[in-house]
Write a structure and sequence with these properties.
The complex is a heterodimer of chains A (222) and B (247). Chain A has 222 residues and is an alpha+beta fold. Chain A is built from nine helices and four strands; from the N terminus they run E-H-E-H-E-E-H-H-H-H-H-H-H. The chains are: A alpha+beta (222), B alpha+beta (247). Chains A and B meet through strand 4, helix 3, helix 4, helix 5 and helix 6 of A and strand 4, helix 2, helix 3 and helix 4 of B. Chain B: Belongs to the GST superfamily. Zeta family.
Chain lengths: 222, 247
């Protein structure tokens, strides 16, 4: 028989530097130590509507992951796929109560906050409801979600959201808090636990490497 | 003792629900009152009922539960679920809110009727479809409904938003399922994707005038869902807190 098989190709992540959904998956990949190929999809240029990209994700959203013959869109589905396929450095605990809490927090971010401040809806609100209406709207969505998460983790947060180990909740929270702070001028003093976590995430190597301005397609400064 | 049908206690303010002392699992499902104007639409609550499959070999007991309706101005509910959405599930001393978290919890706790396949690609497809519904359609639909109720959007605009997001999501799911000839979304057994699709299609058809002929796979699945007792039992109009039809 032939000698050792060729190494499996690296997974390919289709991502946009500023997309908070892509940001989540970058964190997960880094935490698990998965070497991946980064392929930029420029949302401002509309590359998400290219027929080739639409085959990968007909929702025209980043991120999308290609891993061998698996093609997966949606950050949630990708994160749970990575959890199964690359069980090193697990992001979900065995304990059902804590596991459920992680999933709830991820859901608050990806169903309760982020979709309600995405660009299409914000533009719509500006056009149809009124100029400037989108800002209080976004702040309201962030406030509702952050207030809920703050209440949920007050009792269990340690160094990270669920204790002293990074878990799925952190993977979803970090990009949302980052966006809230840097793009939506959110006053984090209302959410002291989340504010503290933000500080942690900004100095953790796996999270740092996933930051928008560290990505290959981030505009270079100067 | 013989299994009793799922029993329902009406929610009476100031009266705590009677808790069962039998050995069967007691689950409490909290749902917003049907038709209340500040309520988040109840579609997600529809999913959390008896696990399916009259076609399965074992007798179908499903997971018995107690239903508790939640009124929109229920201040105690915020203590149970800080984000105030329904549904929420109480199972012993564990409280889980958010339909996806609840379903994944049930998946672990009651592995006798799995909704997710072992195969990672098919599992991811189920999760992606579920996510399209619960992140990319339903919250925007909810925004449009509440915007209308609060007077921020006119009826045409509200419906336009709903149609836009349902159409985008349904077209994407049709693409993901291109060539699918199985009975349900990801195979011949009901799986997670179906649990999320059924209520979304139902809402589209009964509330938002969606023309399902544009989405042939979904239309076919919907007809199949209508035949399944577990799905029938979960429909909004069959819930204890549904308004009685006008005389």
């Amino acid at each position: 028989m032939a000698s050792a098989e060729a190494p499996a190709a690296r997974p390919i992540l289709y991502s946009y530097w500023r997309s908070s959904c892509s940001h989540r998956v970058r964190i997960a990949l880094n935490l698990k130590g998965i070497d991946y190929e980064y392929r930029a999809v420029n949302l401002l240029k509309g590359e998400q509507s290219d027929p080739e990209f639409m085959k990968l994700n007909p929702m025209k959203f980043v991120p999308a992951l290609v891993d061998g013959d698996a093609v997966i869109g949606d950050s949630y589905a990708i994160a749970l796929y990575l959890e199964d396929k690359y069980p090193q450095r697990p992001l979900l605990p065995q304990d059902l109560k804590k596991k459920a809490l992680n999933i709830q927090i991820a859901s608050i971010v990806c169903s309760g906050i982020q979709p309600l401040h995405n660009l299409t809806l914000v533009r719509f609100i500006e056009q149809k409801v009124g100029t400037g209406e989108s800002i209080p709207w976004v702040q309201q969505q962030i406030d509702r979600g952050f207030t809920a998460v703050e209440n949920m983790i007050k009792g269990c947060a340690g160094k990270f959201a669920m204790g002293d180990e990074v878990q799925l909740a952190d993977v979803f929270l970090a990009p949302q808090i980052f966006a809230a702070v840097t793009r939506y001028q959110t006053d984090m003093s209302n959410y002291p636990t989340l504010a503290r976590l933000h500080g942690q995430y900004m100095t953790h190597p796996a999270f740092e490497a996933a930051l928008p301005d560290r990505q290959p397609d981030a505009p270079s400064s100067g | 003792s013989p299994s009793s049908p799922c029993s329902v206690l009406p929610l009476l303010s100031g009266v705590t629900a009677h808790s069962f002392t039998t050995s069967r699992q007691e689950l409490v499902l909290l749902r917003v009152g049907h038709g209340s104007d500040e309520a988040r639409p109840v579609q997600r609550g529809d999913q959390l009922l008896l696990l399916p499959g009259p076609h399965r070999p074992q007798p179908q007991r499903g997971v018995e539960y107690e239903y508790r309706a939640v009124e929109w101005n229920d201040t105690d509910y915020e203590k149970i679920n800080p984000i105030k959405y329904v549904p929420a599930l109480q199972d012993g001393d564990i409280l889980v809110s958010d339909s996806l978290a609840i379903i994944l919890y049930l998946e672990d706790k009651y592995p006798q009727h799995l909704l997710l396949p072992q195969d990672l690609k098919r599992k991811a497809l189920n999760l992606q479809i579920a996510s399209i519904v619960c992140s990319s359609i339903q919250p925007l639909q909810c925004y449009a409904v509440i915007g209308l109720i609060k007077g921020k959007l006119g009826p045409d605009e509200s419906l336009q938003i709903v149609h836009h997001y349902i159409d985008k999501g349904f077209r994407a799911i049709e693409k993901l399922l291109e060539g699918c000839d199985s009975k349900f979304a990801t195979g011949d057994e009901v799986q997670l994707a179906d649990v999320f699709l059924a209520p979304q299609i139902h809402a589209g058809v009964t509330r938002f005038d969606i023309d399902m002929s544009k989405y042939p796979h979904l239309e076919r699945f919907y007809k199949a869902y209508m035949e399944i007792p577990a799905f029938q039992a979960a429909r909004p109009e069959n819930q204890p807190d549904a308004p009685s039809p006008p005389q």
